[in-house]
Each structure stands twice: as C-alpha cells, then as structure tokens.
Design a protein that fits this description.
Structural class: alpha+beta
Helix content: 10-25%
Strand order of the largest sheet: 17-18-19-22-21-20
Shape: globular
Strand content: 25-35%
Number of helices: 10
Number of strands: 23
Radius of gyration: 20 Å
Largest sheet: 6 strands, antiparallel, barrel
Distance between the termini: 30 Å
Length: 376
C-alpha cells in the first residue's frame, strides 16, 4: 500500500514507488546520488495542504523535481549559447527546455525533456533585464517588479498602471518585442517586524535565521539584508552582522561565536527539516518557507531573476514564488527537496487570501561572503 513509509524510504525506493514516472527517458536514468535520502512527514503534509495534492502526488512530484534539476543542470552546460531556460509544467510531470537552435532538439529529447524552440537565449533575456535594472531610479520606482520569464521567452514588467510599465521599458531602451507589460495591484512590502525560522533580535526588532553557515571556524547564519546593517548587534543568538546589502540586494550574514550552527531549518509543528545542499530548483518546482508569523508554508517557483521595487528601493536577482507570507516572516529560509534556495525578502498578499513572496538566492550570499552552508 502506498503511504508515507514509501515516501520516507529513500531515493531508490521512492523512485520504485512512483505510479507515474517523470518521462520514460528520465525514469531510466540513475537518480542523482546527491538527492535527499528522506522526505520529512512535515514537508509532505505542508505540500498536500498548500498545493492541494494527495500524498502520492506529492511524493511523485518531489521525485520528478529531483530528476528535473539534474537534467536541467546537464542541458544548461551542453546547450551553451543556445540555452533559453527550463521549466516544469503545472504538475511537474514534464520538463521543458528552451533553445534557439532547432538542431538541439534530439539532444534535449534524449534526456527525457521536451524541447521548445525560442527566439532569445537566456543570456539575451538576462541582458534585457540588466538594462531595466540600470534604468533611472525614477522610472524604476513606477513599477512593482520585473523578471525574466523563461516560459514566455520574455522579460515581464509589472506595474500598477500601464503607463508606468511603458515608461520603464522606454527609459531602459530595451527591445519592446522582448518585453511584456502587466498591470497588477501587486505591491511588494518587506516582512520585517517579527520573523522566523527561529527568531533573532536586533534591538527591539526581530528577524529570522535563514540558514546556518560557517566562515573558517566561525559559525553564523545568513538572513535578509534589510534586517540590519554591517556592525549591528544581535541577541538570542548573540552575534554581529559581518556584511549586509540592501537595497540592490537583500542579504546579510551574522557571525555567532560560541553557538552551534546546525544543518536544519524549522518545519511544520516545530519539526526539523534537514539541509542537504543548495542546488537551485527549476521554475515550476515546489518550495516551502519558514516564518514565525505564518509558520511552514509552501508553493511553487514562478520565476528566477526578478527585480522588485520596494518603497525602500529596488532589489534584483530575487526568485518569485507562490508561497504566502506576511509581515514578520522576513529572513526565513526557503527550501526545496532538502536543497537550500534562499532567504525571505518580501512579498505581497497574505496567507488568508494568498500571496506572492520573493527570496534572495542563498548561493549568491555564500559566494559573496565566502561562507560554507551547513549541511547533513
């Protein structure tokens, strides 16, 4: 009988338990050895609740996402300059891989993915977005956010008014055929007042521990940059901000000498969820975040490389997700299939009516400050 024992049995047995393979080609390939060996029950339960799935659908989805991440990494390298991005379909049963070179279609199919021939490479889309990032601040302030959308092979500008979106595109001097303009009431705000994973304090303010790290022999954690400036002191645990960047970025790291940096994040019901690495999950993958206001909440990855305009300034390079959050959740960890993804920056909406939340990718923070992620 299919149940949580199958879900928790480990990667090899997990693949055997699946009722629906990712694709025949992918199912025949070895499951990546770096994949999580176990899936905590709290993760299964939260994905069932927030994505409206059955237990079997959750486990099937997680296994498909693990394989998709490995295939995406392989094809990103092999396609080189023609690579146009990759994404999963709604139920994560199929990985689409974009290329500008139709001759690459057999190579993509050979890996079990579905090729999509597009006009622009991912590098070209990133270049368009970079121009928008560099547009005059006045023009950027009129838009809520902008991001590379690999599913439409375009860069999307979201603003409260069409005129503001058009003004930003014009000010950036980008090719309008590469840009989509969207009018939305979405208005990102920072989650700063009370935050979790586990909380820490900066004076009378609270933020959340993102992921445990070390720098040499010094333990600490990464968090959101808007929580504190370099040199700021923390308590519970006691530490000092060693580096902080906001706006532009939204990341920081805090050194906590004398404390034990553990390879866990706080899951549903106070459970511990193991951190096993920091491989970036594909667009369309499920993802969960932890926060002291709303607890353990899950959704899917909508886009990577989004630039978001908060009242305090623009932050670039964020990942946009459908996981809800509310004020007080800033700095907390985002994790997918045991892989650290990032720390909560801000968002819009709430967990009663639904919302959108952004995270700062963790690998950028690790690279910037020379940190080592604590893992199992």
């Amino acid at each position: 009988m299919f149940g949580k024992r199958c879900a928790l049995a480990g990667t090899a047995l997990l693949a055997a338990c699946l009722a629906t393979p990712f694709t025949p080609a992918l199912a025949a390939e070895p499951v990546p050895q770096a994949a999580p060996a176990d899936t905590p029950p709290a993760v299964i339960d939260a994905l069932e609740r927030d994505l409206g799935l059955t237990e079997q659908q959750v486990v099937t989805r997680l296994a498909n996402e693990q394989r998709a991440a490995a295939v995406e990494a392989t094809l990103t390298a092999s396609l080189g300059d023609s690579y146009g991005g990759a994404w999963l379909n709604a139920d994560a049963s199929k990985l689409m891989v974009a290329t500008t070179d139709a001759a690459e279609k057999p190579a993509i199919e050979a890996k079990g993915a579905e090729p999509v021939v597009v006009t622009r490479t991912l590098a070209q889309l990133d270049g368009v977005k970079a121009k928008i990032d560099q547009a005059p601040r006045k023009a950027r302030s009129g838009a809520s956010l902008w991001y590379v959308d690999v599913t439409t092979n375009s860069v999307v500008i979201v603003a409260g008014q069409q005129q503001a979106a058009e003004a930003l595109a014009a000010a950036a001097g980008v090719d309008r055929s590469a840009v989509q303009l969207t009018v939305s009431t979405e208005s990102p705000q920072l989650y700063q007042d009370i935050v979790g994973g586990d909380p820490y304090y900066i004076g009378t303010s609270r933020c959340s521990i993102g992921f445990s790290v070390t720098r040499g022999s010094t333990p600490g954690f990464v968090t959101a940059g808007h929580c504190g400036r370099t040199g700021a002191r923390t308590s519970s645990p006691s530490g000092t901000f060693q580096g902080s960047s906001f706006p532009g970025n939204d990341y920081a790291w805090v050194a906590t000498p004398g404390h034990n940096a553990t390879p866990y994040v706080r899951g549903a019901g106070g459970s511990l969820v193991a951190v096993r690495g920091s491989t970036q999950a594909s667009v369309g993958s499920s993802i969960c975040r932890s926060g002291s206001t709303t607890g353990w909440r899950c959704g899917t990855i909508q886009q990577h490389n989004a630039s978001v305009t908060y009242p305090q300034g623009t932050v670039s390079g964020l990942t946009r997700t459908s996981a809800c959050a509310q004020p007080g959740d800033s700095g907390g960890p985002f994790i997918s299939n045991g892989q650290a993804q990032g720390v909560t920056s801000g968002g819009s909406g709430n967990c009663s009516t639904g919302g959108t939340t952004y995270h700062q990718p963790v690998n950028e923070i690790l690279s910037r400050y020379g940190l080592t992620l604590r893992t199992i």
